[in-house]
Structure prediction request, 299 residues.
Amino acid sequence: MSDESKNIPPLKPPKTFEEQLEILNNHGLIIEDKEIALTILSKINYYRFSAYLLPFRNEKTKKYQESVTFTKIYRIYEFDRRLRALLQAIIEPIEILLKTRIAYYHGHKYGPEGYTDSTHFQNSTYHDKFLLEFRSAVNKNSKALFVKHHNRKYGGKFPIWAATELFSLGMLSKCYANMLMQDKKSIARDTFNTGHEQLETWMKCLADLRNRCAHYMRLYYYNFVVTPRFPNDCKHAISGRLFDIVYVLQYLYLNKTRWNNEFLIPLEALISEYKDVICLEFIGFPEDWLERLKESESK
Prediction:
């Protein structure tokens, strides 16, 4: 056993739901109804639930602020859950649009299998890794009807318009980032009327957000590592919180009427419903967030 491994503490033993609740109580969380709290903990991982207490914890004493209740934290958790669902619904058409436009452009310029040729990309090493990731996706989806069809009829060859159906947003983002400069510029300009540098960061942010939503990970009081690059005339200041990426979504969502009706209206209602427990600062939303997002009409 190495000296380093000797210094690694053992993992903590598992706790019963009753013990978990006692830990929360000992740290100062007010438990209004023990039975209801136990039922909630039996359905939500303690590790997941306790993350929503981070804004209320004193790191020195490990105690929570006075008057913080279990119900309040659970309502914040519910707000976050419903916010993720709302964002997932708006991300879906953006992801499909990106796959459609990239496949259309690349397929017409380089042919159905042009995406497999490293000469159509900037970095051959990155391209090789991308193809390995794609083949892994093919293997994982080997039972899908269209995958079986292409394996049987075309010897495992996929045209780009079929291949992109197996791309994750992360794969699509990597594919775009490694495209030749003139191709990136054309796609960004013709589809979103923006620059390739902006679109590249937007896709990275979108992939990060989608992954968090798909894996039910916390958005509230979370600092995003990937930050978007905004157009030069944009006055929005980077916060590192969720609003940065939501602000990007308005550029990527081309149907402005549906953006306002199917996203902004439900979002406003959701924030209003939970305004007594949430802090807009913890998701990076400024006080005039609605007006800023409605500006998408003119973008």
